Amino acid sequence: MALPRQILCSLGAFAASTACLAGMDTTAAASNFVPQQQGEINVGLGCLDGAVSCLELDPIFASIESLVDDTSGTQSRLFVDYFGAGDNVVTYGSGNDRVQFKTKDAGTNSMGYWLRPSERSVGGGNEETGQLEVGTFRFNFAQTLAELTIDFFDTESWDSTGVVAINGVDLENPDYVAKGKDGNVVSQTFFNISSLDLKLGLDRASGTGDGVNFRMSGVPAQDVPEPAAAAGLLAIAGLGFARRQRGA
Q1: Which domain holds residue 135?
Q2: What is the CA radius of gyration of the chain?
């Protein structure tokens, strides 16, 4: 049973903000930004199989960059993986750099197409053959999003998965999602977004850690009808944004 949505305003990270439009809803339908095919996304590390496995991104992304994750100490790769009917074992690269996604993971499996981080070991190679879903990424959007929703799958650790920067400003208190039960899905929705840094999963010095898959959907600002009154409020708000979160 879905929990009631919470409407939260966050202004501390934005000194220039003078207002927060809490609970602002768009009227345009959200688009799914996850490619509906398996493959690798070039996040500044190239693709393990070159152009063969490199996916074409939705035009909404100006770029996606892999940052150094503070729990693994390395940059991670990013893939689109699929679980469900017709799924096959998919292998990228070879040797120490080999990444392989099976039709059923040792852990909990998400159904459908999801964005999947793949941690790289310090000094090269891939931990758990690339199956530890840990990483930090910067998403730069080609245009401002009136609304951006992120779904996180299987968050089972505290203070390790969520948004750590918005519109180029580091959050003093990162917007981490709560620890949940096995196979949980928790969603966050943000407004007025041009860029976003996302931290996913937790790498432990001993053992494996907590892996997290995710997906994104949203509404570009140009697709949202804007009444004159709302336009005036947006002008006052400046960099203000709102976030709502729901869990399942």
Answers
A1: 31-221
A2: 18
